[in-house]
Amino acid sequence: MNRRFGGPGFTRPENALKRSEELENVGQKHAALQALHDVITSKKHRTWSPIYEQIMFKHIDLTVEAKKRNYPKEALSNYRNMCQAVNISSLEEVIKYFLKKASEKAEAAQAQVAAMTIDVEDLEQDASPEDMMLSYVSADKGKDRTDRELVTPWFRFLWDAYRTTLDILRINPKLEVLYASVAVRAFSFCLTHKRTQEFRRLCDILRQHLGHQLNRMRDSRESHVDSLQMHIETRFEQLKAACALELWAEAFRSVEDIQQLILQAKKSPKKEMMATYYACLTQIFAVSDNHTYHAYAWLKLFNFTKAFNKAILPDDLRAMASSVMLATLSILPYDRTDKAGDDAAADQEKERTVRMAHILGFAVSAKMDYRTVLSRGALLTATTGAHIMGAVPAEMKELFELLTTQFNPLELCTKLAPFFERLQSEPQELSAASPVKAVNLARYVTNLKQVAVLRLLKQLSEVYSSLKISSLAAMVPFATFGEIEQIIVDAVRYSYLQVRIDHRHGTLHFGSQQLESDKVRGHLSALAKHLSAAVAMIDPPPPADKEARRKAAIATALAQSGEEHRLMHARKIVIEKRKEEQELAMLEAEQEEERRRAQAAREAEIAEEKRRKEEALQREIDRMTREKEEQDAKEALEIYNAQLGKKGKAAVTSLAGVAQSKDELVHQVMSERLKEQQEMERKLAKAAKQLDHFERARREEEVPLLNQLYAQRMEEDRAMHEEQQAAFLAAHRAAWEVDVQEKARLATMLPEKAAFAAAIMARREGEFKALQAQRERMRAERAARRARERDIARRREFARRCQEQVDERIRELEREHEEAEAARAAAEAEERRRKVEEMAERQRQREAEIEAKLRMEKEAAGRAAPPAAAAASAAAASGGGGNRF
């Protein structure tokens, strides 16, 4: 029907496979691939059959050969939809074959490049001029350029194959084992070829797939323990690969993924996996310079190995115990955190400590102090146990005692110097039964020296109040005074030591040396106290006012307590809000950075792909131009030699010296060929006319002979038909007679047959009635059970609604009670404020009356003073006059 209306015809799978093989044999591989791809992606092919598996194998061969990265995903997706309900193992075989072919091609390309770098014809021959010119115009070396041209395209194709396969397998629970094996193979690919960028993308892809699967698990009621266990095993392989590639950020994210999966699965992983987990944690925390977590990881690894690894050698246990002890001793005796931080920083530190405790396998309760969960003191207590002290060598025990218990400041560092020299050795290789390959004790020497100097200074501060710098430098043979000074500054900064260095006199002063900031810190409060005391001494308040002021101060404090509580609560809310905003801003910044990084990677990949396409297109254009010129020259030479041959001349090998161009030669040859063609057509027309006449005459002579042959054949066919009809009738008569005899013989068995059939039908009828009754009974039971379930559900819903109403009423009553309490508290506060104001007003009135009274007394005294003065002056005047006269 489609062909009648101009549409494409329906291609059967068998025909498409055969057509593809024919096209491949003639060199048209792209057309062969397209034919198979159209069949696989067609909507008409929805029922699986074995022929589709063969088509997929052929499709994969052609796809890998042509390096078509977009074809496999579409084909595998349609094939998955086709066979997932019928034969899911076929999809598994096809995916395994796809990955095998892609891996073989990548390995072959790598081997080809290796052979090209080794197979040099003359080792003494210098570089060719072409190679020298290419090295001048390109920054890449020869091997890098060869890898980019031959190996990198196959690596990119193999990486796309892994990514496509994981995307196809992620939604089918029946293929989870294959999904895990493909993920492990992808990890191995990234690890073998050092593909760090692809490893990060692979981790993000697996993390995204895991998130989708966990969402589906939460929505379903089925058990997914095996699936989660498979994901846990995959994440352990991811963790090992991340540590091998030294991608420590991805390694820590893998650790967090493992913790999340263990919480989801509620089942402990295998012992070997946990040993690998703690071994990787030792590497991660060693790189992050977090000595406390590093020591705890070593402690967990040692305890785990000693408890569950029965094949571990005593030498391996001794080396691991030494690592635990040195890692513990390498921790600084003080914490490098700012103790004057706000509540938000304290909450963040608590959250981080609890999260690290869970990662390291320590249970933390809400009542525990998070600062004591992972601390140096707890580690020292655990290290002094018999299981570790009994496993370390004697010299490690002596080192432990020198740095923890002994008090000998004058000889401490001198005794420790030989230990540090012995620790500066090559890493100790462990056996295959150990979870770690080697133990490197030399990494702890630097921190041990710093701890030794701190212990020396601590002991000296308990004995001396001052010490010469030269004496201190002589006590520490393994460090210069500059290094010692850095250690002192760091310890004083975090309040572990109280030391002041006097470079002018070359001395150190131990003890409580207050800094300028400590002196100024309480200056204003001390000044206020002294001024208040001075005011009290100059103008002491009356005894009655002292009690009133005390009561007024108490009332004021009570009135302001609620406001201060509200302000503190508001401040806490603001701090929490700022913390959330800061976390949100950090998260948005990380997402923006990740998006920008991904966009840059995509743009770089697009630019690289565009450059490669342009280079390939330019090379193809140059090749086609060159081939066209060569073909034109070859055709012109053939045409010229053909003309010379017709003239009886010898052929030439070059057109040098020929004045005619190719177009002129072609035009001349075409004119001659046109004349020859016209002559040939005339001769053919004449020959055709003669042939027509001959054929007409032959047929006229043949007609009588054909009529005679036809009549003879008719007679032979009639005789043969009559003979066959007679033989058929005779055979039919004989068979009829035999059937009549057989019928008569079997007729005697009809009563027995009827009785047997009646017995069977009666038994089956009874069985049918019993089954029918049972089915009715089960149907009634199901109906009753469903009715009970519906009744229970209705009762539960009614109870839930009643509980919600009760809860809502309780909340309303609590809210009303709170509002009433708030109103009552406000009224009481207002009443207290009013009383305080009244008392203050009465106090002011009394003070005003006292001041008015004092003022009136002073005014009365002032009015009495002038008359007395006038009387005294009059008496003096009269006495003076008597003397004068």
UniProtKB/TrEMBL annotation:
Residues 813-861 have a biased composition (Basic and acidic residues). Keywords: Coiled coil, Cytoplasm, Initiation factor, Protein biosynthesis, RNA-binding. Residues 290-515 form the PCI domain. Residues 99-126, 670-697 form a coiled coil. The keyword Cell membrane does not apply. It is found in: Cytoplasm. InterPro entries: EIF3A, eIF3a_PCI_TPR-like, PCI_dom, WH_DNA-bd_sf. GO terms for cellular component: eukaryotic translation initiation factor 3 complex, eIF3e; eukaryotic translation initiation factor 3 complex, eIF3m; multi-eIF complex. GO terms for molecular function: mRNA binding; translation initiation factor activity. Pfam families: eIF3a_PCI_TPR-like, PCI. Its main location: cytoplasm. Residues 595-614, 813-885 are annotated as: Disordered. Residues 862-877 have a biased composition (Low complexity). HAMAP family: eIF3a. This is PCI domain-containing protein. It comes from Chlamydomonas euryale.
